[in-house]
What we know:
Elements: H1 15-24, E1 36-39, E2 42-49, E3 55-59, H2 60-74, H3 77-92, E4 104-109, E5 114-118
Amino acid sequence: xxxxxxxxxxxxxxxxxxxxxxxxxxxxxxxxxxxxxxxxxxxxxxxxxxxxxxxxxxxxxxxxxxxxxxxxxxxxxxxxxxxxxxxxxxxxxxxxxxxxxxxxxxxxxxxxxxxxxxx
Length: 119
């Protein structure tokens, strides 16, 4: 008795799924644009101004920490790479040591892996 094999039809890619996939493959969001100004030697994203005209808002460190939390929650690849680098450094050095991981950049897709780099 011979059985005919039937190929299963692949579902058409949904725009929502494609958008989520593209978002995960992006680099870490950068702090650039007209909204960023230097104040007291530190780069800040201006949310508003005081009555005296002094700008206030997020610092770059606050911006990056917030993006990392959001990126991990969404499952972004750059956020996962940053977390893995952080965990690897913590295992190698003392937990009290301070270190900074640069901006994570998407390099491209390989055959079975995505390539990301720190700047």
